[in-house]
């Protein structure tokens, strides 16, 4: 069984994982603030990626 989660850039930032996410996906950390990406941009992450960036995957199911 493969678990994938869809999460927005803003949700990643709100959880304090933006820097690690950007490093993992090789994305410029300032892309949202510089207007190259909207904060509501959605990403699909595997459970492994969620754990790698330090987000508690059990929180993903419940809103902040």
Describe this structure in words.
- With 64 residues, this protein is an alpha+beta fold.
- It has one domain.
- It is 38% helix and 16% strand.
- The chain has four helices and two strands, in the order βααβαα.
- The chain has a two-stranded antiparallel sheet with strand order 1-2.
- The radius of gyration is 11 Å and the shape is globular.
- The N and C termini lie far apart (26 Å).
- The model has no long low-confidence stretch (mean pLDDT 90).
Please summarize what this structure is:
This protein is an alpha+beta fold and 64 residues long. It has one domain (4-60).
> Using DSSP, what is the number of strands?
2
Strand order of the largest sheet: 1-2
Q: What separation lies between the terminal Cα atoms?
A: 26 Å
Major sheet details: 2 strands, antiparallel
Low-confidence stretches: none
Average pLDDT for all residues: 90
Would you tell me the structural class of the helices and strands? alpha+beta
Instruction: Estimate percent helicity.
Output: 25-40%
Determine the oligomeric state from the structure: single chain
What is the alpha-carbon Rg in Å?
11 Å
Helix count, per DSSP?
A: 4
The succession of helices and strands, N to C, reads: EHHEHH
Count of the separate structural domains: 1
Q: Please state roughly what percent of the residues sit in beta strands, choosing from under 5%, 5-15%, 15-25%, 25-35%, 35-45% or over 45%.
A: 15-25%
How would you sum up the global shape? globular
């Amino acid at each position: 069984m493969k678990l994938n989660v869809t999460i927005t850039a803003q949700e990643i930032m709100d959880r304090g994982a933006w820097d690690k996410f950007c490093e993992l996906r090789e994305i410029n950390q300032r892309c949202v603030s510089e207007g190259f990406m909207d904060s509501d941009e959605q990403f699909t992450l595997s459970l492994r990626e969620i754990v790698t960036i330090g987000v508690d995957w059990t929180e993903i199911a419940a809103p902040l």
